[in-house]
């Protein structure tokens, strides 16, 4: 089932997600719905807070990035089919010289900004089988994970831009908060007003 994506300004986007147990009700259904919602919105990642749930859960599928012709064939192959569910993730290490990439977010439609992130991460998490694993990721995969991980920590990519850039996008953010935005996917806003 396609869920509405929560828009900028909703308090759930600022909550730190709670850990999940194997007995969490409807977990498999929630994960399935999150993938369906992400694909419907043409996203590469989606975190539980974005569908109104303050949980330590996010899903990723970087396949759309594999179409980038500017990437080396090996990088395209790495991104193609990288699909992963992250439960109770904990960032252990972020390292390397920060690099810039233009990011967007399904909860903040029509806003894209350059964000600096570390190129290499070490993260501990469970997949749906609840077996804990620790893995190292680099490049675009690491970036997508960092973006979604921020969501379960109550952080948005707009928190990582300069105060000047924040002032420049203030009107857009206010419009999103009020539901004065148009996108091709279902959204839920904190203060929907007439357009």
TrEMBL record:
GO BP annotations, alphabetical order: translation
Catalytic residues, chain numbering: 148
CC cofactor note: Binds 1 Fe(2+) ion.
Pfam families noted in UniProt: Pep_deformylase (PF01327)
Catalytic activity, as annotated: N-terminal N-formyl-L-methionyl-[peptide] + H2O = N-terminal L-methionyl-[peptide] + formate
GO molecular function list: metal ion binding; peptide deformylase activity
Signal peptide start and end residues: none
Enzyme Commission code: 3.5.1.88
Keyword Iron-sulfur (UniProt): no
Record's function text: Removes the formyl group from the N-terminal Met of newly synthesized proteins. Requires at least a dipeptide for an efficient rate of reaction. N-terminal L-methionine is a prerequisite for activity but the enzyme has broad specificity at other positions.
Family, similarity comment: Belongs to the polypeptide deformylase family.
Protein name per UniProt: Peptide deformylase
Organism: Flavobacterium frigoris (strain PS1)
Primary gene name: def
């Amino acid at each position: 089932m396609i869920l509405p994506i929560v828009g900028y300004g909703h308090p759930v986007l600022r909550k730190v997600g709670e850990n999940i147990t194997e007995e969490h009700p409807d977990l498999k259904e929630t994960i399935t719905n999150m993938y369906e919602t992400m694909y419907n919105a043409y996203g590469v990642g989606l975190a539980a807070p974005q569908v109104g749930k303050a949980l330590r859960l996010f899903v990723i599928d970087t396949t759309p990035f594999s179409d980038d012709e500017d990437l080396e064939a090996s990088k395209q192959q790495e991104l193609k089919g990288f699909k992963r569910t992250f439960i109770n993730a904990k960032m252990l290490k972020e390292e390397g010289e920060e690099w810039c990439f233009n990011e967007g977010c399904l909860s903040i439609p029509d806003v894209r900004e350059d964000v600096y992130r570390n190129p290499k991460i070490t993260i501990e998490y469970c997949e749906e089988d609840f077996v804990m694993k620790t893995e190292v990721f680099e490049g675009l995969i690491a970036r997508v994970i960092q973006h979604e991980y921020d969501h379960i920590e109550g952080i948005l990519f707009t928190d990582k831009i300069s105060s000047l850039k924040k002032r420049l996008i203030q009107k857009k953010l206010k419009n999103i908060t009020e539901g004065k935005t148009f996108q091709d996917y279902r959204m839920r806003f904190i203060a929907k007003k007439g357009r």
